[in-house]
Write a structure and sequence with these properties.
The chain has 1 helix and 34 strands. The chain is mostly beta strands. A hairpin with a 2-residue loop joins strand 30 and strand 31. The protein has 2 domains: about 325 residues, Glycosyl hydrolase domain, family 43 (Tachylectin-2, Chain A); about 120 residues, Sandwich (Jelly Rolls). The relative contact order is 0.13. The protein is globular, with a radius of gyration of 22 Å. The structure holds beta-D-fructofuranose. The site of beta-D-fructofuranose has 14 residues, from strand 1, strand 5, strand 9, strand 13 and strand 18.
Amino acid sequence: MSELTLLHKLARSLMTGQLRAAADPHRPQWHLAPPVGLLNDPVGFVEADDGYHLCYQWNPLACAHGAKFWGHWRSTDLVHWQHEPVALLPSEEYERNGCYSGSAVLHEGRIHLIYTGNVKYDDGSRTAYQCLARQRDDGTFEKLGPVIDLPAGYTGHVRDPKVWRHGDHWYLVLGAQDAQLKGQVLCYRGDDLQHWQLLGELTGSGHNNLGEFGYMWECPDLFSLDGAEVLICCPQGLSPQADRYQNLFQSGYFVGQMDYAQGRLTHGDFTELDLGFEFYAPQTTQTRDGRRLIYGWMGLPDDNEASHPTRDYGWQHQMTCPRELRLIDGHLYQTPARELSALRGAGVRLSGPVAETPVLDGRCAELHLTASGPWKLDLGDAAWLSYSQQTLTLCRRNWRTGEWETRRWHGELRDLRLLLDASSIELFINEGEAVMSARYFPGESVPLRWSGQAELQLEYWPLSPCML
Ligand code: FRU
């Protein structure tokens, strides 16, 4: 479709849909969500001279996956964001079924986007091109076209380029499916952003003693952190095991050492990034003050999507909050970006028997708690949390089936930080040792009611709305 036709459709969708979306009581007050239509992966996350840029996989024309655009936000403080001109529209033949996920780097003072041009054929087959675009002076992007074609020996599922600089070269990783239908990560090296040499498989199914490890790996992201290399990726096709791999698709990481000459990562086991219900396709960037930040999509491509109540208001899905990453003893810790404390209103400090804790408003709030003994916290009648016998349980009412569903973390709970928004919960356990994220759809008020035998120490802040 021509760029002009796409722009007309986009404008009409925004003009007719934005007020309806904004009127939804489940609309996030301080998380990023699309103005209309469906959002999925965070992409093109980078800090430039004019602040942080975060793009997103976006179908502005419907609450459905389809020919994706790149929406584009910018912020100077990671809290307040403004819309920028849409970064990419799927107007060219080589991207006609979507400008799929990718990343951003700064080169010669300009943001460059590297993304996947997705092409589907009538017979059900597909191909993929990795494409480059460069920012113009007015903030829009000029497409420079495909720079990597489909490599031999892989299906059309090759996508989601993440680019970074190491020494005198650019490096790029891609999620891929090989001809035996196994998930892989490919590694490329380039002298510039246009010319790339395939070094080989960085890792994947069958590498590093993984054995069979999924039929497709999406959204790889490789970076150094605290003296090691971390590969984040999303393997599809892992079977559930006890409390692991409970969601349809997984998002997790490996820690290892990179051989840059060979483009190979030697690494240990796979650890999930988030033990909640919705977390997928995250992307990280390095800030100028040296932090590694991550955003995730607080969603999953699965059948729960079709019944999200926000679809009645013409919008769907949101990002997680921005989180800081640290690597301690080979384990990734995630904590909410420190900038988010700017959202806090007047705080309340309480301590005493949990059953005597007053009811607090949980619609949009932050809580820190430490407790001795078992406790339970009801979030209205749409979700609850409890801790007893070394198990933290997060339970929510499934909006499709009406049934309660559960995720668990096992261990000694020292402290818990809870971030609540109109339809989301993020739990940070023991200063980020584990995280659980979930969407939920409560009524318009969310009374927080406590029960149990514990002595509780609690800090509570209402959070102020900051999203349009
Ligand atoms: C992950 C993903 C990516 C793809 C994009 C399409 O959620 O499937 O692999 O590039 O979404 O929107």
